[in-house]
Amino acid sequence: MSSDAGLGRDAGPPLPRPDTEVVFDPATYTEGVPFDALARLRDAIPVAWIPEVAVLGWPEGPGFWLVLRHGDVESVLTRPKLFSSWLGATQIRDPATPQALGYVRRMMLNMDPPEHARLRRLLSRSFTPRAVARLEDRIRGHARAICDRCFKGSGGEADFAKDVAADLPLLTLADVLGVPEEDRWLLFDWSNRVIGYQDPDYASSAEFDPARGTPMAAEALAVRPAPGSEGRMPDPRTREGMPDLYAYAHLLAQEKRRRPGDDVMSILLAQSDENGGQVSVAEFENMFWLFAVAGNETLRNGLPGACIALIEHPQAQEELRADPTLMPSAVEEMLRWWTPVMTFRRTAANDCQIGGQLIRAGDKVVVSFTSANRDDKVFADPDRFDIRRHPNPHLVFGYGPHFCLGAHLARAQMSALFTELVARTSRISYAGRPAFLRSNFQRGVKRLPIAWTAAKLTKRVGVRAGPLVAVQRADRLDFAPVEPEVEQVDVLPDPVRVDRLGEHDVAALKVPAQHHLGRSLSRPAGDRRDRGIAQDVATPERRPGLDRDLVLGAEAAQFGLG
Ligand code: HEM
């Protein structure tokens, strides 16, 4: 050993690692995202060469260009002919074998135009307005049920990642895919296996309870692979690595063709493309893989990420509680601030330049959404969490032809869950240290211990425009007409004008128990006129926007039906 080396080690702390190594190493992210290193690179070398050193038992790779600026990321993603998703697929690491590459290329995510456009069109057409409206209704119901279960009483502690965030994406996906709810934890285990391949805590996840599953699940489980001698599961980005997922997808497609439901996948299977062709079984199976992973893991990390943003910014919690109309812009900011999917990869088809940097044909080009979403050329004070930020042109869902197909559903889930959360609590804070996923792809949260205190307000009120006000108390729900002269409902801290609400809107608002809604509540319960009104609003077809559970609850409570 040279004396220099010896001196260097004994004389002080180890030399800092180069930023290029820090941002690549999956282990870095267990301590958090290295924002400082990303900012230094973005300023000094915005298209940086990253050596792929050997990590976590993987051999060295050829290296890649990391694109850090917002404008350059957009430019790469809108030129699929030059920056291909197909040539080397879309993950930083090359697939292990040519066969493995051939296999992942069958997935829409890893296709280029024009093949990509055919599947994209078929899928986009399957998300009909009716299907999406139905999904949104279901999402709100799921969010409410999860919060009913987790936020009982005057306060407590929970693991937000496991107890709150894990189930909503699964329930939503079960609706999209037409998977029976009792099988949904299979989706959880599969996406853990794929995403958690870099993290031993996730790689052999087995949360699904076979005793509760359908016969389809039992057939799939029979071919579930076992961990090898080193405890590692077979590579989940090969067909052999996920035989149980494909067995299930195959059975599900058969079932949906036999007995179509009103789920998106049944609609997709029944569709024909321009040449009269239908989605093949192989295409369906690959799409199932894509949805099971893309629709689950992303949200399941995005929801705790958003919760962390609120915990670390109590003022934002307060503002959201005071003014729920801030929720849409808050959701965009939560997404930007956390950015659950950190990178995606393309391969250069020809020699070219990005931001003045020469790129050779065949080079890997990796876009950093995490860096682009903190680019101060686009976002003023980018590290600040600002729930009123406008405009907010973040790239969380990508950009260009592969723009996330689930963006709308992802936003709907975040909005539904945090609307419930801020309405039910007066405070959420850390109850312990969160644990983060070892991955340079997903910004993942494995555990998020939170402490919460229930809202001091005790009465929930649904208000709709037009002639009715519905007031829910702890034990019953009253309906009453709004007198013509009532223009606004006094909801603390601000009055809400009745005419600000859409015709079919139900706004969940909170008022203190002793608070009065003017004269509109003075009508005695059981009055024949009230009964007529309650039955009227209880017919979902006639009042499509009205919250079904609220209405059914009203009927049961007021008329003693349940
Ligand atoms: C916060 C949650 C989510 C994030 C951050 C996210 C992120 C992304 C990103 C960055 C892409 C682009 C990939 C590329 O350019 O190569 C993408 C594509 C995709 N996402 Fe999402 N996603 C989320 C939720 C969902 C959900 C809920 C679904 C399904 C229900 C979904 C389905 C898809 C699909 C199918 C694609 C491929 C689109 C294509 O190749 O044309 N995602 N997503």
Mind explaining what this structure looks like?
It is a single chain. The protein has 562 residues and is of the alpha+beta class. It folds into 3 domains: 15-106 and 303-391, Cytochrome p450, CATH 1.10.630; 124-302 and 414-430 and 443-454, Cytochrome P450 (Cytochrome p450, Orthogonal Bundle), CATH 1.10.630; 459-559, no CATH class. The protein has 22 helices and 18 strands. The strands form 6 sheets. Strands 1-2-8-5-3 form a 5-stranded mixed β-sheet. The chain has a 4-stranded antiparallel β-sheet with strand order 15-14-13-18. Strands 4-12-9 form a 3-stranded antiparallel β-sheet. Strand 10 (435-436) and strand 11 form a beta hairpin. Helix 7 runs parallel beside helix 20 (407-424), helix 9 packs across helix 10 and helix 16 packs across helix 18. The longest helix is centred in the N-terminal third of the chain and has 22 residues, at 129-150. The structure holds protoporphyrin IX containing FE.
